[in-house]
What does this fold into?
Amino acid sequence: MRTVRYTLPTDTSFFTPLQLQPRMLLSQGMSAWARWARANLVSFPRLVKEHGASLVMLGIRLEYLAPFRFFDADEVEVVIDVHARAGGELLTADLRFNAAGREIVRGDFVMKPVLLTEMTSLTATPGPLPAALMARFEPDEIVPGKPERLVGPLVESIESGGQPIATWEHPFTVHRSHCEVADQWSFTDVADLAAASRESLALTKAGTDAAFRVALAEPIRDIHIEIAKPYFAFDTGTVRTQVYVMEGRPVFLHRFVSSIGTAKPHGTVVERF
It folds into this structure.
């Protein structure tokens, strides 16, 4: 197993008043993957240019394990292991964020290799990682079978076992600040868009309902993200938010929708406190 680790000096942009920014954790997840690939596989630009392959994010789980705020440490250590799953049909990344001698956040990322069909726009179709790249994985980095779905079963349990208390719609436009090089939305901003919907709703309800005060004043326990299809630059979308109470705690279920294509959401996010 070829583990990659590196440290980041902390700065105020990494944090909300309550905890590490989800956006920072997602961004470092991609950076950690790029570092692992450069050290053990091929650099990300060469993956695209020379091998005609790239990756799209399918699922992410971030779990906050311990309180951690700006003044708690001078640096954060990022640790990543990568596995090829199902014959190269999927890649998974196991991330750990450590600080002050303890593990503070755990991240699980599921990525889908795609094969480029046109270089200018980086148009791609799903396909396994090329054989030349699969040959560069160590035996203990190759795992048969697919990982568990990160979001679907959780959504089912929320809708069947939770008490619904509110709904909300938060429209947005996908500007290039939300996009990556192919002019389609970047997963690193998905948690921010979900949080904007949650906070907009909570601000309207916090004066009358304690569940919404929790959503503004307490740290997030975990975030689950599933991405099903892209938005592109300057598309308009809506975050449809449903709020449930489970075991006395609020759970926010966000679906990203639009008038583009089918009714299937572009993505789903669950935030738990």
